[in-house]
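To: structure subgroup
Subject: Chain for Friday's discussion

All,

I'm putting the inputs and outputs inline so they're searchable in the archive.
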Amino acid sequence: MTLANWIKQDGDFVTLDEIIAEVDSDKATFELPAEATGILRHVAKEGDVMEIGGLICKIEVTDAAPAKESAPAASSSAPEKTTSSNENYATGHASPAASKILAEKGVAASAVSGTGKDGRITKEDAMNAQKPAETPKTAAPTAKAEPTPAPSIPGSREVRRKKMSSLRKTVSRRLVAVKNETAMLTTFNEVNMKPIMDLRSKFKDQFKEKHGVGLGFMSFFTKAVCVALKEWPAVNAQIDGNDLVFNNFCDISIAVSAPKGLVVPVIRNAESMSFDQIEKEILRLAGKARDNKLSIEEMTGGTFTITNGGVFGSMMSTPIINAPQSAILGMHNIVERPIAENGQVVIRPMMYVALSYDHRIIDGRESVSFLVRVKQLLEDPTRLLLGV
């Protein structure tokens, strides 16, 4: 784990259970509370990588904060800072500023008469100095013109460097490993979202009044995925050494964008949950993710992942598998598009969906059939309610 940030500074007075630091693990950020009341003494520095149980700080136990000492007054006998003059050179010599100006003009100091004390060459003398006229030379007939320098464009050229968090490094390592170690393919389809949108509009007020939570799209997708996973179990499987492990339950991972990066909390046994139970669990996990309060247990496991890039405006993507799972479903934004329906061109709210899967476990027939089944359930949501 990595010490991410000291909230309390070295020498601060802290009380029991007061949050003094933030620690990054491979999966989340945790707050570190004080184990006693007293004066905090830092041992580790921000960015240090430590073993579990390693010493981070010490607390000098005391019941009350020490009185603050006033800063000592400046001594009246302190020596005054002295400055040196730039014009303390021998006669005929230039000050540093004057020397720089003369060098830029290509004028020798010996060609300038100083007007300063004892004949010193001042900055003003250098500014007024003129380069001696040169004897005209016959230009070479084959002289090559100098290239025109690139124009200087004003603007900031600052660079900000930030150390990667343990969570970001872990996510990066896992994503690269998935790309390198799986036979990942993606299949696409599109879903007419009008039936779900009509259903939500009709019952959203009654649903919220009864259950105390809104009826969102994610519960429909979660229920549809659970039904399809039961029918196509390979999509819910994973590789363990030389074995294929088939899960008879659906632990659905929901990708959530948190302040410290992407996290994927898990809805356990989603296949046995009702719409309102799924919505409440999503709301609970998303709130903990935004507050960096998710536990390791809440992010461990999962048999299948759903990610919704549509909330950010994504129209189409190829999501990366959340190892060791074998597949992930990507949702996207809803856009009204013309489609053919019963021989007529109509405008419908359409969403592209993408299923990325590991071809080592899942064949093309299974992946396409799974996605078609999800589409069928979403376009006729009464099937989800009736279980057909």
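Points worth raising on Friday:
The two ends are 48 Å apart (CA to CA).
The domain at 183-386 is CATH 3.30.559.10 (Chloramphenicol Acetyltransferase).

D.
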